[in-house]
Amino acid sequence: MLWNIAFVLASFTMLMLTTKERPNTPIRVWICGYALQCLVHVVLVWLEYRRRNGSGRAASSDVKRCESVNTMASFVWWIVGFYWVVSGGDLLLQTAPRLYWLAVVFLAFDVFFAIFCVVLACLIGIALCCCLPCIIAILYAVAGQEGASDADLGLLPKYRFQMLNNAEKLNSEAGKMVPVETSSLYVAQERMLLPEDAECCICLTSYDDGAELHTLPCNHHFDSSCIIRWLKMNATCPLCKYNILKGNEQV
């Protein structure tokens, strides 16, 4: 808005100082039209400001419609001005140098502003594509998340993984989870694991013979050291987002 006011003042000042210049193209008319468009933009911004503050009666749709019309008219007027400057050539520069350079400055500023908007939009798009998943993950991790205490972790069923030899395998199982007594004195039931299930989804390594495991209320199992570190930061299952403190599944 400020530069539009500056352009209006610069236009009228230059028009008053160049009354003796005789350009070979109607560049003076173009500068008047350009200043008028800047003035219209200032008025529309002021009306929108008053409407948002509740002191104006102009409808938002009317202001936006007028702004769109003014933008399209500015684009067409820019093309007209560019044509008149180019067609005027050196003769325009000689007969009306100040009007010529004022028009060139206005045209160049519009090009710079358009390029700046396009580049800014591209940068925002690239930033959203690259950073948005990380931002969402960080916000999801810190917003409303609560870590589990040692007392909560002590209530989780504990197992020791035992690999099966060929004689013990019945249905291609890789091993079994043998319950281990915990501080809560709760002993879970023995579980059989298929080869594709006998690995921790946190560290992505297969269970070694004798490895300590923990299961969550949602029946997902993990390496003991991995899931304890995870739950101390975030009391939800890494797979299904079941909250072991609240007893529900987060969406």
UniProtKB/TrEMBL annotation:
UniProt GO molecular function: ubiquitin protein ligase activity; zinc ion binding
Pfam families: zf-RING_2
Matches recorded under InterPro entries: Znf_RING, Znf_RING/FYVE/PHD
Keyword Zinc: yes
Gene Ontology biological-process entries: protein ubiquitination; ubiquitin-dependent protein catabolic process
Record-listed E.C. numbers: 2.3.2.27
Topological relation to the membrane, as annotated: Multi-pass membrane protein
SUPFAM superfamilies named among the record's database cross-references: RING/U-box
Domain spans labelled RING-type: 200-241
Location relative to the cell: Membrane
Record key words, sorted: Membrane, Metal-binding, Signal, Transferase, Transmembrane, Transmembrane helix, Ubl conjugation pathway, Zinc, Zinc-finger
Signal peptide (residue range): 1-18
One cellular component (GO) term of this entry: membrane
TM ranges: 27-47, 68-86, 98-116, 123-143
Source organism, top-level taxon: Eukaryota
Keyword Zinc-finger among record annotations: yes
Protein name: RING-type E3 ubiquitin transferase
Organism from which the protein derives: Linum tenue
Phylogenetic placement of the source organism: Eukaryota, Viridiplantae, Streptophyta, Embryophyta, Tracheophyta
